[in-house]
Amino acid sequence: MYKRIVLKLSGEALAGTRGFGLEADKVAEIAAELAEVHALGVQIGVVVGGGNIFRGLSAQAEEMDRVSADSMGMLATVINAIALQDAMEQRGVQCRVMTAVQMNQLAEPYIRRRAVRHLEKGRMVIFAAGTGNPFFSTDTAASLRAMEIKADVLLKGTKVGGIYNADPMKVADAVKYEQITYMEILKQGLKVMDLTAVSLCKDNNLPMVVFNMNENGNIKRVVMGEKLGSLVTA
């Protein structure tokens, strides 16, 4: 159903059951699933978070200057990106890490046209270091990259089955939205993505699917057009 996708992958997703750092088995599991999707001929861009290593808004960062804390968070995303790149290449998928902060010995600088060319050549592209600016989350980076490379959809993997009117981990009778608009998310103050990311998607008519990443095979199901999770439209 989708020819070119951007997947927003949180750092926590790579931490698995440990909750912090990198869990090799979980990284391998995600890589295997992405390799399956890649084999379908889908062009894949991935935006990785860094919350499993360091988060600019975390308790450890409370005493720090926000710019310094966010800079550490951006570097954490590069560690995750290189780990995922290695796992993908072990599965025979050519993969490039592109960073918004220049570090030429480790990864390519992010250049939009070059990123699109990599995708057209069948390489997976991992976007690291967020937008390269403090105060902007990796959610915003995912929205931005999806629009820059003209992705068909933004996929956001979470721990729950979609978007709910309350936290389903805390509220037993939380109601799931099969379909919702960005405006409704903003009005209800739903914590799906940060407001900047939601506004960007809304203004540029970018559809988003929020689904459970913890169920194996879900990325492929979404790409194949199965009704899974919650669809967000403008």
Please give a structural write-up.
The chain has 234 residues and is an alpha/beta fold. The chain has one domain (4-233): Carbamate kinase (3-Layer(aba) Sandwich). Helix content is 38%, strand content 20%. The strands form two sheets. A nine-stranded mixed β-sheet has the order 4-3-5-2-1-6-10-11-9, with helices on both faces. A two-stranded antiparallel ribbon has the order 7-8.
Quick rundown:
By secondary structure, the chain is of the alpha/beta class. The chain is 38% helix and 20% strand. The protein has helices at residues 11-15, 24-39, 66-90, 112-120, 138-148, 182-188, 195-203, 218-223; strands at residues 4-9, 43-48, 95-99, 108-109, 124-128, 153-158, 163-164, 176-177, 179-181, 208-212, 230-233.
